[in-house]
Amino acid sequence: MTSDQLFTYFPDLTDTQKQQFEQLPALYEFWNNQINVISRKDIDQLFERHVLHSLGIAKIMPFLPGESVLDVGTGGGFPGIPLAILFPDTKFYLVDSIGKKIKVVQEVSKALGLKNLRAEHLRAEQVDEKFDFIVSRAVTRLGEFYPWIKGKFTRTSKNTLPSGILYLKGGDLADEIKESGLKVTQYYLKDHFTEEFFETKQVIYVKG
């Protein structure tokens, strides 16, 4: 997948946003050689498997100006960095328990000139703030994830869904959802993207 293919899914990008997305492959190629944050086989498919996958959340929930979003276990900056590019008026806070990964996030964010993103070496349980939405990409099973972020939601969101979790997951999630005991809404990314990679990918929404 090329940047042009990515832009067909998001046709309203500004020139600045397009330039920021186009910078991502070179930035991650550079930083991945220093600190391995993306698997070798995936670095060549960065736009599809990382950038567009992250932006799947935007197809479900376009964040509003002034809203705040926490990205838990962001790794190399996914889904937080692509979402921060797409929503420059929304505030993003990216955390990960592995410090060297956060260094990559900070360096990539600085190179892109993202003013709406901050990143810290923290576990989710250490975050002492409230957010309109919490995003993450398959860091653990839903039932284990929810206690980490319980109570970290505002109640003021005026978005189309109430404040809650938007969790990127793949595969058959029936057992995991049942085990969690949570009331879940499943959104299928194959309804938005045609690439085979998205056939089993979902955004799981849980009200906060």
Brief overview:
This protein is an alpha/beta fold. The chain has 8 helices and 7 strands.
How would you characterize this protein structure?
The chain is of the alpha/beta class and 208 residues long. It has one domain: Rossmann fold (3-Layer(aba) Sandwich), CATH 3.40.50. 39% of the residues lie in helices and 19% in strands. The chain is built from eight helices and seven strands. The chain has a seven-stranded mixed beta sheet with strand order 3-2-1-4-5-7-6, with helices on one face. Strand 2, helix 6 and strand 3 form a beta-alpha-beta unit. The longest helix has 20 residues. The chain is globular and about 40 Å long. The N and C termini lie far apart (34 Å). The mean pLDDT is 95.
Strand-helix topology:
Blueprint: H1 3-9, H2 15-34, H3 40-43, H4 46-60, E1 68-72, H5 80-86, E2 91-96, H6 99-112, E3 117-121, E4 133-137, H7 142-149, E5 164-170, H8 174-180, E6 185-188, E7 201-207
Helix pairs in contact: 2-6, 4-5, 7-8
In angstroms, what is the radius of gyration? 16 Å
What fold name goes in the CATH topology slot? Rossmann fold
**Can you identify the CATH superfamily?**
Vaccinia Virus protein VP39
Task: Work out the count of structural domains.
Answer: 1
Mean model confidence by pLDDT: 95
Sum up the overall morphology in one term: globular
Order of helices and strands: HHHHEHEHEEHEHEE
Specify the biggest β-sheet. Answer: 7 strands, mixed
Q: What order do the strands of the largest sheet run in, or round the barrel if closed?
A: 3-2-1-4-5-7-6
**Tally of helical segments:** 8
What structural class do the secondary elements suggest?
A: alpha/beta
* Architecture (CATH level 2) name: 3-Layer(aba) Sandwich
Through-space gap between termini: 34 Å
- Uncertain stretches of 5 or more adjacent residues: none
